[in-house]
Every structure is written in structure tokens, then in C-alpha cells.
Amino acid sequence: MRRLFRRLLKATVWIVALALLVFIFGLLQARRDPVIHQGRLGLADWPKGAAPIRVLLLSDIHIGNLTMNRARLDRVVDQAMVQRPDLILLAGDYISGYEAGTAQAVAPDLIAALSRLRAPLGVVAVLGNHDYWTDAATVHRTLAAANIKVLINDAVQVGPLVVGGVDDKTAKQDDIPRTVAAMRRLTGAHLILTHSPDIALVMRNDAQPILAGHTHCGQIVLPWLGPVRSLLDSREHYPCDMLWQGRHAMIVTGGVGTSVFPMRIGAPPQMWLVTLGPRTASPAPRS
């Protein structure tokens, strides 16, 4: 009996030690500097004679947990500014968790860090599901205080580009017809910015290029098996790349933060630097 107890105790210690090592590894991976992916997206309606522009796509900051605090967010902002983009697009989920108090508590840090994001054509943002699940009004005010233009099913013209901001589908705040109508009142090449890439599944009539986040590239991806959540629910899919969804050219970024578990395994933090210009060919694969 004692021998069996000792074996069970030893096995338990090894399991706990292994779990701790995996957690530490995942935490460190989640806190690493984002990988910068680069790509080119040609737009059929690009204004004749307009020069291409470079757009930085940043998403899923999720400040307020172990993987994202003010110091790390400052590093992410520094890395973004080194790229010298013409335009910065933020694809939602600035807050971690589900409590309204979280958004209020981290607002000063978000304002201080995100107000350092500067680009000639400005900074444009949409909200994500965690922003609605915490306190969307506070997040909206926070972004505005950082001199960021927030689009709620609306559009804005920035240089040769018309950016339509579709609100978050996961939180059931999206209004695609309203957004498309707002875009049609402006002049320029059309581009959709949203949090969840799932809007591509319901956009039937307009073949709009889409930039999104939300998926975290699966966040925890096991070798040979794939994302953990897709193993638990076959309906969960985690596209994260430059790709086509039906008629829509898309770029889905894995973002820089985490949700639920403060870990990343097999899905490192990332940002995208995208060159937009006239269409010459199908979107090139990521670099």
C-alpha cells in the first residue's frame, strides 16, 4: 500500500511539475515581442495615380492579465512605430476578461500607451467582443482620449482609402448594410475593418477586402493536433493568415495579447504590415 502511495505521489509531482513548465513556457511565449508579417493587398477600386500606402494592423491587446501590462504594451507600441506606417488600424479587444471594472482600471494605461501611436493618415479602430463584455462605453472614450477614430458601423476616408468599420459580430453589434452605405457616400478604395472575421460568411453582395483579428491563431496549438479549442468543438476554426473567404480577400492577424489562458503555444503574437495599392494580381502569401 505504501509503495502504491509513493508511486501515485511521485506521478502527481511529475504531472504538476510538467504542467508548471508548460505554463511558464506558454506565458513567456505570450509575452514575447510580436512577429511582424508583411503582405501586399491589391484593391480593384484603388484611385488612379494614388501612391500605395503601408498599413499596420494591430489587434487583441487584451490588457489587464499576466501577458499584457503597461510595460509590455509600451514595447508593442514602440515596435509598431518602428515600422513607420502611413495608417494604423486597430481591430478590437483592448480589454481582458469580462468585468466592467477591468476596462475602467486599465483606461489610464491604454490612453498613455495608445496615444503614442502616430501615423500620417491617423489611427482608426473598431471594438471587439471583450470590449462589449466589459464596458464598451469606457473603451470608446478611452480610445477617443488617445486620439483614435472609433468606427461603429460607420466609415471614414483616409487618403486614397475608405475604411468601413463593422462592429463586432460575436457581440451581435454588427450592421453590415449600414457600414456599406456609409462607405458608398465616400470616395476611395474600399476596405473593411472588423474584429471577427466571421462577417465574411454573411457578406453576400459586396466583395470587400477585410482586415480582422479575434482568432489569436488558436492561441494554444498542439503539434500534429492543431488548436486545442478546435479539438473540443469542431465548429471552432482559427484562420490566421492572408487568405480568401468566398469572394473576400482577408488578412486575419493573431494579435498581441491573450484571453482565457495567459499562454501562447504554437501561435506567437503578431502584427501585420500591409501594403495597399492597385490590384495587379491575387494577394501574395505572407512573408
Would you kindly provide a brief summary of this structure?
This protein is an alpha/beta fold and 287 residues long. The protein is built from 7 helices and 14 strands. Helix 2 packs across helix 3 (100-114).
What does this structure look like?
The chain is an alpha/beta fold. The chain is 30% helix and 23% strand. It is built from seven helices and 14 strands. The chain has helices at 2-30, 70-82, 100-114, 129-134, 136-145, 176-184, 228-232, and strands at residues 35-43, 53-58, 87-90, 123-125, 149-150, 154-158, 161-166, 189-194, 210-212, 221-222, 226-227, 242-245, 248-252, 270-278. The strands form three sheets. A six-stranded mixed β-sheet has the order 1-14-2-3-4-5, covered by helices on one side. The chain is elongated and about 80 Å long. It starts with a helix and ends in a 9-residue tail after the last strand.
